[in-house]
Amino acid sequence: MATSVKNNFMNQPALVSNLKQALTRRKDSSTVQGNRTNEGIIKASSNSKPVVLITNGEGIDSPGLTFLVQALLRDTLLDVHVCAPQSDRSMCGHSVTTRETLAVCSAEVGGANAFQVSGTPADCVSLALSGALFSWSKPVLVISGLNKGATCGYDTLYSGAIAGAREALICGVPSICISLNWENNVSCESDLKDAVTVCLPMIHAAIRDIQKGIFPKNCFLNIGIPSCPLTNKGVKVTRKSAERSCLSWQAVSTNRNFSAGHYMSNQQSLGIMLAQLGKDASASAAARRLNSNRKNVEIESVGVAGKLSSQQTMKRHFRMELTQKVQQNTEEDLDTRALEDGFVTVTPLSLYANAHIEIQSSVSSWLAIALNGDKSN
Questions:
Q1: Taking Cα atoms as reference points, which of 150, 142, 198 lies closest to residue 170?
Q2: CA distance 176 to 199
Q3: What is the DSSP string of 313-345?
Q4: CA distances from 206 to 63, 121, 158, 184, 254 (A)
Q5: Source organism's superkingdom (predicted)?
Q6: At 180, phi and psi to the nearest 5?
Q7: For 341-370, what is each residue's pLDDT tens digit?
Q8: Is this structure's pTM higher than 0.90?
Q9: Which residue has the higher pLDDT, 168 or 374?
Q10: Angle between helices 356-376 and 189-212 (to 10 degrees)
Q11: What share of the chain is helix, strand, coil (3-state, %, to 5)?
């Protein structure tokens, strides 16, 4: 598991080290200017390692993130950095934080320097690529993963993990998202390690071909690992299906004792918490003044309540629960079907609505050459 260091932000050794590196780079920027090309800054040394940025949707303490980082560091060929949410933001979509201050703390994940951010995966990638945290100009590749739970079909629109990879593409950096088709009460942490083993050849092939300039353009790759990774039937390029998890809204008893974490993360600073309490108090006071002559009636069922009087308002609590997908499509090249059939799925996702056929063909050609090239080396 990752070990998060949550001491004072400005006293963190990793942060101080990164700031020193940034200041050194700024001092030497005049000499770097002469080495610029159309593709950006020329590397200072031909022996420098490719930089990889890793984020995820489940938070910095998730085991899948740690296993992936450890595996990438094991071969010592990459310079791995992590910037991930401090808590689970799996279903936040491509939301970004505005009008609020994000808290950032240095941490350590699987042996790599890291930052945990009190925001979304898209926040993490945007902040990491802004140059505010790391001393490098930009990474070769951004990886969002390894995430626990398949992300197929319309679920890609809800997924915070997918948003992290998409944000990288928007910023002009190649990216992939990797998820394991986790089965509750069946899958275990060893499956996450096996999933990392399965996806490593594709990661290394992607990095190699990005540097050669032959990696597919205008898309990022959504890689799905089947629930039994080591017995997969092979790699298949797939299309996004039209399926999604069922969203079930459940009425919650008003007697239920909500935890403080229901309203805000318990890892936010005291100042932010007090500010929020002040805002809530002001809003509550305004609501009391507005409804001073009305009586709130908390009920469990609208049907049972019947018609309310003009001096009454209704108040209820709901919680959304995700249920399993109901398989509707039978086409073998759709992501959901292929993943359930035991294939490793590679689904190219684009920012452009009409580029599907061209991009899928490009990814199919690259994948065939890339994986065969790895076997021959």
A1: 142
A2: 11
A3: EEE-EEEEEEE--------TTBHHHHHHTTPEE
A4: 23, 21, 26, 31, 51
A5: Eukaryota
A6: -100, 135
A7: 999 999 999 887 666 677 878 888 888 888
A8: no
A9: 168
A10: 100
A11: 35, 20, 40
Comparing CA positions, the residue from 114, 161, 154 lying closest to residue 134 is 114
Residue 364 vs residues 175, 177, 190, 369: alpha-carbon distances, Å: 17, 17, 30, 9
Beta bridge partners of 142: 53, 175
Cβ–Cβ under 8 Å, residues 121 and 87: no
Contact assessment for residue 105 and residue 18, using Cβ atoms and an 8 Å cutoff: no
- Pick the more confident residue, 320 or 209: 209
Per-residue pLDDT of 1-58, as tens digits, reads 443 333 333 344 444 455 445 445 444 443 434 333 333 333 333 458 899 999 999 9
Which residue's entry shows tokens 């684009």?
Answer: 350
| 3-class secondary structure, 273 | helix
Sign of the C-alpha dihedral computed for residues 9, 14, 16 and 22 taken in this order = negative
The CB density around residue 24, as the number of other CB atoms within 10 Å, is 11
How do residues 54-101 score in pLDDT, each as one tens digit? 999 999 999 999 999 999 999 888 999 999 999 888 878 888 888 899
Rounded to an integer, what is the distance from CA 56 to the centroid of its chain?
Answer: 3
Strands (E), 189-281: 219-225, 235-237, 246-252
Tell me how many degrees the CA angle 146-150-152 measures, rounded to the nearest 5. Answer: 120
Whether 226 contacts 232, CB under 8 Å: yes
Dihedral angle, C-alpha 347, 350, 355, 356, nearest 10 °? 20
- Angle, alpha carbons 195-200-201 (nearest 5°): 125
In 306-333, which positions are buried (b, 16+ CB within 10 angstroms) versus exposed (e)? eeeeeeeeeeeeeeeeeeebeeeeeeeb
Residues 291 and 313 sit within 8 Å (Cβ to Cβ): yes
Domains annotated for the chain, with CATH where assigned, are: 9-23+47-245+330-376 (3.40.1210.10)
